[in-house]
């Protein structure tokens, strides 16, 4: 039986030194071979000429047949969601991938996820299993945002909240099989492009943090979100909220914005 040809697109948003984003881009191009791919590299108005450096680096990336790379330099940093929404009007692919600059592939995970979603037409959003570079599994939220679980993930010394976090990460479920989820991380998400466009992409008012939880809820109004653990990727996971107060403030503010929109859960 002849394999169905799908069209893929992916976007990596960069701010600052583009070396990591270019490494992620090279990884995506190296391993994504079964389906045509358009890869967008969006610089979010980085200082010190980093956007120009990203564009120059993009020109040096090795592409295979059917692969296209496009670098876009924004004049204003509108945040994570705005950066990804930059390409929204241009998307004509079957499946689109939202990728962090600290993602690395070791297999054709984009094609694998697209093929799997194409076989499951009720699924509009999915993600692979993510690991640290050491190989350790990343335990990420899979159920809808709840306040006490988010507090625990910032302050794990509060051991009395562990059970709530276990519920948040679906520790009660067998996550070695494809599983329907309520929260699809923005570090690596696959979306049906037509649905992503229909919901208007990200809510840009979040600027940074929790916008992925918001997008998941918008997408879930059109279909299902899934963890598909047989497909994997490496995520280095830079947790800025642990290192300075400003990102932590963004996270807290956006959490309450999310709750006001989708309902509060303690």
UniProtKB/TrEMBL annotation:
Keyword Ribonucleoprotein: no
Protein name stated in the entry: Glycosyl transferase family 2
Chain segments annotated as transmembrane: none
Coiled coil: none
GO function terms (MF aspect): transferase activity
Domain Glycosyltransferase 2-like, chain residue ranges per copy: 9-199
Listed SUPFAM superfamilies: Nucleotide-diphospho-sugar transferases (SSF53448)
Keywords, in A-Z order: Transferase
């Amino acid at each position: 039986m002849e394999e169905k040809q799908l069209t893929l697109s992916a976007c990596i948003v960069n701010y600052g030194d583009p070396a990591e984003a270019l490494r992620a881009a090279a990884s995506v191009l190296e391993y994504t071979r079964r389906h045509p791919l358009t890869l967008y590299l969006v610089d979010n108005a980085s200082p010190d000429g980093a956007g120009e450096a990203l564009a120059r680096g993009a020109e040096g990336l090795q592409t295979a047949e059917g692969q296209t790379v496009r670098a876009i330099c924004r004049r204003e940093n509108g945040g994570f969601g705005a950066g990804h929404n930059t390409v929204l009007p241009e998307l004509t692919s079957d499946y689109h991938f939202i990728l962090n600059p600290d993602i690395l592939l070791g297999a054709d995970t984009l094609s694998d996820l697209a093929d799997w979603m194409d076989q499951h037409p009720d699924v509009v959003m999915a993600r692979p299993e993510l690991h640290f570079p050491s190989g350790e599994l990343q335990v990420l939220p899979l159920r809808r945002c709840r306040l006490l679980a988010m507090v625990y993930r910032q302050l794990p010394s509060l051991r009395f909240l562990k059970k709530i976090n276990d519920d948040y990460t679906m520790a009660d479920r067998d996550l070695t099989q494809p599983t329907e989820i309520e929260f699809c991380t923005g570090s690596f998400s696959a979306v049906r492009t037509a649905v992503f466009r229909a919901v208007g992409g990200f809510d840009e008012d979040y600027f940074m943090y929790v916008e992925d939880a918001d997008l998941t809820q918008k997408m879930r109004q059109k279909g299902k979100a899934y963890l598909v653990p047989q497909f994997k990727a490496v995520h280095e996971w830079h947790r800025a909220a642990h290192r300075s107060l400003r990102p932590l403030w963004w996270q807290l503010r956006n959490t309450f914005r999310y709750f006001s929109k989708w309902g509060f859960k303690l």
